[in-house]
Structures are given as C-alpha cells and as structure tokens.
Amino acid sequence: MEWGIGLLFSVLMGIFVGWFWYNNNKKMKREVEKKGGVPKGSLGWPFIGETLDFIACGYTSRPASFMDKRKFLHGKVFKTHILGTPIIVSTDPEVNKVVLQNHGNIFIPAYPKSIRELLGQHSILQMNGNLQKRVHALIGGFLRSPQLKSRITRHIENSVKLTLSSWQDMQLIHVQEETKKITFEVLVKVLMSIGPGEDLNFLKKEFEEFIKGLICLPIKFPGTRLYKSLKAKERILKMVKKIVEERKLATGKTDEKSNANDAVDVLLRDSENANDKQSLPFDFISGNIIEMMIPGEETVPMAMTLAVKFLTDCPVALHQLMEENMELKKQKMKSDEDYSWTDYLSLPFTQNVISETLRLANIINGVWRKALKEIDIKGHLIPEGWCVLACFVSVHMDEENYENPYRFDPWRWAKLGAAVNNNSFTPFGGGQRLCPGLELSRLEISIFLHHLITSYRWVAQKDDIIYFPTVKMKRKLPITVTPLMQLPVVWPIEESL
Ligand code: HEM
C-alpha cells in the first residue's frame, strides 16, 4: 500500500515538475525571442540542459571542446543550460572584459547554491559595491606590498626547502599533495600569522573538511556533505574569532602607518580607524579571513603541480629553466647573499614558464556573474536576471589568440611580451575583482620552481589532467627524484613573518 502511494506520488511529482519546466522554458524562450538580439544557442534537455556534454568534455584533454562546438554553431557568445542554470557563455575576450569591469555594478557574482551557503553572505567573493571595493583594496594593497613580499620570501623559501628535503626519504612523491603543504602554510601565515604547530594542523584538517562541500548537493541536514562542511566552518570560525579578539586586545588603537603583519591586522586596523566609514564588525573580519583561504588554497599548488607536469613533457623547456635558475644559484653562492623576492621574479624564462602554465592549466576556467539589469555588449543582449559565464579557458585555447594553443610553449611569451594581464590572458580574472593574490602566487611558484629544479632531477609516472569539477591530476602526479645536492633548511624562522 505504502509502496503504491509512493509510486503515485513520484508520478504526480514527475508530471508537475515536467509541466513546470516546460512552462518556465517556454516563458523564457518567449521573453528571449521578444527582445531579439539575445545570443543564439540551445537550452538542451529538460532539467539537465546540456550539462552531460559539459561534464564529459571536462574529462577529456580538450576542456574547451564544449564551448568550441557551440562557438562554431552559434558564434563567440551563445546561450546554453548547464549545472542547473540557463546561462549566456562568452568566449569573446572583449565581452569578457566588459563583464569583468562591471561599470555601474550590473554584474554580481553568481556561485552555485552549495558555494553560496558555505561562503556566507558577507564573503568578499559574494559582496558587491563599495564594501567589496574597500575590502579588495585593503587586501590587494597588503598582498602586493614590497614589505610583505620581502618578509614572506624567507618564509616561502623555508617552507619549500623543508618539503623538498623530506622528499629524499620518500620513494614516491605525489606532487599535488606536497605542494599543498607548502602553500597552505604560506597562506595561513599571510592571513593570520599562524606558524607550524598544533593550530596549523587543526586548521589544515578542518579546512579540508570545509572545502569538500564547495561543490555538492545543496542539502543541509545532519550527515550530508554540506552539513559536515558547515560544521567544520563553525570550528574554524571559533578559532579565527579567538585570534582576532586576542589581536585586538593586544594592539588597541594602532598606528595606521606601521606595517601590518597579516590580513587580520589589515582588516582590524581599518575597522579601528574607520572614523567616518562604517567599521567592519568582528564576525565579518573572521568570516572573511576564512573565505580568503578558498581562492588561495587549491589554485597555487595546482599551478605548481601543472608546471612540473608540463616541464616533464617538454625537456627543452626544462633544460632552459634549469640553466637560468642554476645561474642565479651560482651567483648567490658566490656572493653568499640571501635571495630577495626581486631575484626570483627577475628570471625571464622562469616567468614565461609560469605564464604559459597558467594559460594552459586554466585553473579557474571562467567566472560566473548574474546581470542585475538588461545590458547590450557588442550587439549581444543579456537580459536582466540571466547568468553569464565569462569563459577564460576558451579564450586561452583559441587559435585566434594563441598559435598552437594546446602546445606548452613558454617561448611564445618572449614574442607576446610579458603580458601579465590583457583581455586574452586572464588566469587571475580582471577588472574590479582581479585576483589580489596574483603577485604573491607568482612569487610562490617562482621560489618553488627555483629550489626544485636546482635540487632534484625527477621522473614522472603517467598521469592525466582532469578539468571537472576543478582542475586536478588523476593520480596526484607521482614522481621519483634524484637529489643534486644537500638542501640547507633553516627552521623555525623569525616569527614576526
Ligand atoms: C594561481 C593562483 C591563483 C589563481 C589562478 C587565482 C584566480 C583568481 C580569479 C580568476 C579571481 C577572480 C574571481 C572573480 O572574478 O569572481 C580571483 C579572486 C580572488 N583571489 Fe585569486 N587566484 C589565485 C591565488 C590567490 C591567492 C594566493 C589568494 C590569497 C592569498 C587569492 C585571493 C583571491 C581573493 C580574495 C579574490 C576575490 C577578489 C574579489 O572578489 O574582490 N587568490 N582569483
């Protein structure tokens, strides 16, 4: 009997949802046709749209092929329906630029529901308008400052050397895991001055639990992935709140001119010296510190890992990179001087290897926005309420922008110029939300590559890149290494960061 009722209920639900989808889709199509000029494209099957094809392409070596097929049929800007949302996709660098610049605040970030739940409404990744500009400027100013780069260089070096020296006793090294150790330590040091020890281990464990829920079903009750992740966030929040409170008590009113040690300092000082501005509440500061860990946590280690992968597959580039870095190492040994952050960033071929890695890796394949108002960009109408995907991967893999786009070719950057950011090269986004961690990331990758390549030779086992839901190595990139020379490790370093 119960089984029968269940079946009837399911059938009725099915009919209702089907009817709802049909009407909704028809209404949307009517609206779209009425306005004219809306990008062409197909919304695919009921409910799933074109999601299956989108995901399938993410598991091939051609992650842009989903976009390429539609670009060929409908042009550089088209509509589709993926991951539960009808969306206008732009593979046009100029359209992307307008979306990213976001003059008049027409576009707001539009993340999937599970991400929104975990971020919280006050996260810098979700906030808009003046508050976003203020927090972005504060954090960006701090992360880009020469003072931070000079202090953090020593810390990154030591973290890299400590990790690399542990490889001598390991038979098989999984680069994707090892690089995470380095970058997580650097991240929490920059954000809240936590060094190696119990607190760092606690944070690492809880943060891993927290981010597992970023891409999951948005269902929140005990036992579900989202629920577990939210619980982990509560535990992290408790710890970060304590740090913020202790810091506030220790410093009192601070001199705005003295250098901030970490992001907690930066936000606390702004809050204390708010005067006419609205001061940032405590919860806001703690929440934002955690949320700033999200964009930094997986991206930098993946860039390091993929640099190792691409170099392994391109021995000529590997050789040139080694020569350039060995030269710097010899100079430093001869003069007995420490490296400065500018030394690492001054190696042109190394910087070209990093640019090429970021282009080819597409760690952030695009950004999702929602239009608050109807807008016309280059003759493409984006109706109010529609989502837009400014797709970076398609631009980075387009023959119009890069000759032989699927080839790892660091030499192309010598011809293109050190185009750190133009419309066709946006690994760090652009406009109002250009990644504030851009320079820090490049510094971290440069230091890692320098010490890796001047300390070891390696052989990598076969592994493939997966592009969905995020960029990863299927087997975490296993390698075996042969040391070139002993690595000196200085640890712990002076604790003032
Ligand atoms: C290779 C490494 C990295 C890549 C590829 C990357 C990429 C990006 C991209 C594409 C955006 C723009 C998102 C949007 O427009 O919605 C972004 C924003 C952001 N990134 Fe990064 N990122 C990296 C490393 C970092 C690091 C190390 C940090 C922190 C220390 C960081 C902090 C942020 C923050 C706070 C934002 C939000 C800015 C805002 O909305 O105002 N990122 N990142």
Can you tell me about this structure?
With 497 residues, the protein is of the alpha+beta class. The chain has two domains: 31-121 and 367-396, Uridine Diphospho-n-acetylenolpyruvylglucosamine Reductase, domain 2 (2-Layer Sandwich); 129-362 and 397-483, Cytochrome p450 (Orthogonal Bundle). The protein has 19 helices and twelve strands. The chain has helices spanning 2-35, 51-58, 65-74, 93-101, 113-119, 129-144, 146-166, 175-192, 198-211, 225-251, 263-272, 282-297, 299-312, 315-335, 341-345, 348-361, 392-396, 412-416, 438-453, and strands at 77-82, 85-90, 107-109, 173-174, 366-371, 375-377, 380-382, 387-391, 456-460, 465-466, 472-473, 478-483. The strands form four sheets. It has a five-stranded mixed β-sheet with strand order 1-2-8-5-3. Strands 4-12-9 form a three-stranded antiparallel β-sheet. The protein has a two-stranded antiparallel sheet with strand order 6-7. A hairpin with a 2-residue loop joins strand 6 and strand 7 (380-382). It is globular and about 65 Å long. The N and C termini lie far apart (68 Å). The model is unreliable at 5-18 and 491-497 (pLDDT under 50). Bound molecules: protoporphyrin IX containing FE (HEM). Residues 109, 124-125, 132, 136, 139, 143, 187, 190, 292, 295-296, 299-300, 303, 363-364, 367, 427-429, 433, 435-437, 440-441 line the site of protoporphyrin IX containing FE (HEM). Protoporphyrin IX containing FE is lined by residues 109, 124-125, 132, 136, 139, 143, 187, 190, 292, 295-296, 299-300, 303, 363-364, 367, 427-429, 433, 435-437, 440-441. It is found in: Endoplasmic reticulum membrane. One of its GO terms (cellular component) is endoplasmic reticulum membrane. Its cofactor is heme. Its main location: endoplasmic reticulum. The chain crosses the membrane at residues 6-22.
